[in-house]
Amino acid sequence: MNKDYIIDQLKKQIENFQSKVPTEKVGKVLEIGDGVAKISGLSDLMASEMVEFSDGIIGVALNLEEDQVGAMILGDYAGIKEGDTVKATGRILSIPVGGDMIGRVIDPLGQPLDGKGNIVTEKFYPVEKIAPGVITRQSVNQPVQTGIKAIDAMIPVGRGQRELIIGDRQTGKTAIAIDTIINQRGQDMICVYVAIGQKESKIARIAAELEKAGAMEYTTIVLAGASDPAAFSFIAPYSGCALGEYFMDQGKDVLVIYDDLSKHAWSYRQISLILKRPPGREAYPGDVFYLHSRLLERSAKLNKDFGGGSITALPIIETQAGDVSAYIPTNVISITDGQIYLESDLFYKGIRPALNVGLSVSRVGSAAQTKAMKKVAGKLRLDLAQFRELEAFAQFGSDLDENTRKQIERGKRTVEILKQGQYEPMAMENQVAILYALTNGFIDDVAVEKVKTWENDFHKYLKSSQKKVLDMIAEKKELTDEVVAAIEKAIREFKEIYQNGS
Fold first, then answer.
1. 53, 73 contact by CB (below 8 A)
2. CA neighbor of 487 nearest in space, from 449, 451, 456, 461
3. Which end of the chain has less neighbouring CB within 10 Å, N or C?
4. What is the pLDDT of residue 384?
5. What phi, psi does 37 have (nearest 5°)?
6. Is the previous residue joined to 260 through a cis bond, with omega within 30 degrees of 0?
7. Would you call 363 a catalytic residue per the annotation?
8. What span, in angstroms and rounded, lies between the C-alpha atoms of 181 and 54?
9. Residue tagged active-site, from 137, 363, 381, 388
10. What is the Cα–Cα distance from 416 to 274, expressed in whole angstroms?
11. How far is CA 123 from the centre of its chain?
12. Dist CA 122 CA 117 (whole Å)
């Protein structure tokens, strides 16, 4: 090779040489304890910026003070000690998102917990994001079928709605949420179940049930376990929402369940008190309302110009001794578009789901109900409300007039029909058929203790011999004269067979 050529090349390289000196913003740990670190030397850190500790653990800047930064640590903080170096990353807290997340159990940072290998994703979404504006939204007009008769009929949920599930512990709140996920099979809905501060054994059981029902094909579980640091419980709902937003941005419908926001508020209270933020009512920090409002406002039904996707939120709140007027329950009730209130007394009486119809309400769901359901459900709510009133009154008087007696008898059968087992969601067409039979007096002559058996046999009969009636309801979604005639004919034929058989 020519010597002059080599010299020429070297000259060119020297001329084009640019020294790139990597710069890093580095601080020091001043104080560490209970999952929170005080850091000095990172004066230009952003709020919610990720910082990296010397052993690779990530933290998030929460308190930006004049001479120090308060950061919560996302991981095991046992190895971090006073004097350790901390690097600013320049990135706001984000999680990896993508289609590969579906069917997996992940932690709030998007790392897999199910032992099924790594998740490869291209995109990152910020954990905190400003909610969609008024102009981008559209009114709720499509139903989310929960598969639970009492809810779909009387407290309907629409796509893009936020419906609170509230009640004491062990009243079936999670059961309603899981049944709703199972019922989304074939409904073109992606589900995200966020478990906040839950026992790992409980979530393993839920994952197994969803797997068995084939629901993990469209579901992601975001788990912040009971043994994880409070910081994980704090960011878990925002991570689940960010994952939901990724799918919503692609025009898909998403259902996000936050189980439960009481534990979320507890974890935030813990972090805030350690950061020495001033406590307010019940020792919660002053912005605990904003904590939940900024999360739940991210649920929306977007209009066609913005992709037409939606996020439906089912937040869960645990009350203490049925006290709905406590701080966190009243906050979340005021943010959401209605609540499903579950009562311990009803639960122990064997009425499950233990739905208190008087205190439960859906503020927008009825706009999304199918016309068929609207028609059969209108009578149902009134019947049940009148029954509750008459039942209390009838305890004191023995001689009741014929009309009152009929209403009480109908009410007893209504309560029986609205009972439903766990993991047994029911299709809309079956619900319409049985509720039509109930509200039009076809079950009035069936003994109360035999109503459940009658209903089960009726559904089996429809499935085997009257499939076309179910298909007609599912297709038309309306009680036209033709549909009504078909339902009534099927009921009468079944009653004949049932009476002859019994």
1. yes
2. 461
3. N
4. 87
5. -120, 140
6. yes
7. yes
8. 41
9. 363
10. 50
11. 23
12. 16
Work out whether strand 94-97 and strand 105-106 pair parallel, antiparallel, or are unpaired.
Answer: unpaired
* Token pair recorded at residue 431: 């619900």
Q: How many CB atoms lie within 10 A of CB 407?
A: 18
Pairing of strands 26-33, 36-40: antiparallel
Note the pLDDT tens digit of each residue in 130-150: 999 999 999 999 999 999 999
Length of the chain: 502
The angle at the Cα of 433, spanning 191 to 365, to the nearest 5 degrees, equals 45
Q: What is the pLDDT of residues 234-280, one digit of tens each?
A: 999 999 999 999 999 999 999 999 999 999 999 999 999 999 999 99
How many of the other CB atoms lie within 10 Å of CB of 325? Answer: 9
d(Cα 242, Cα 236) in Å, to the nearest integer?
10
What is the helix, strand, coil percentage profile of the chain, to 5?
Answer: 45, 20, 35
The DSSP output letter for 75 is: S
- Whether 223 and 159 have beta carbons less than 8 Å apart is answered as no
- Angle, alpha carbons 427-432-438 (nearest 5°): 130
Strand, helix or coil for residue 441: coil
pLDDT digits (tens, 9 = 90+) for 378-394: 888 888 888 888 887 77
pTM over 0.85: yes
List b or e across 3-28, with b for residues whose CB sees 16 or more CB atoms inside 10 angstroms: eeeeeeeeeeeeeeeeeeeeeeeebe
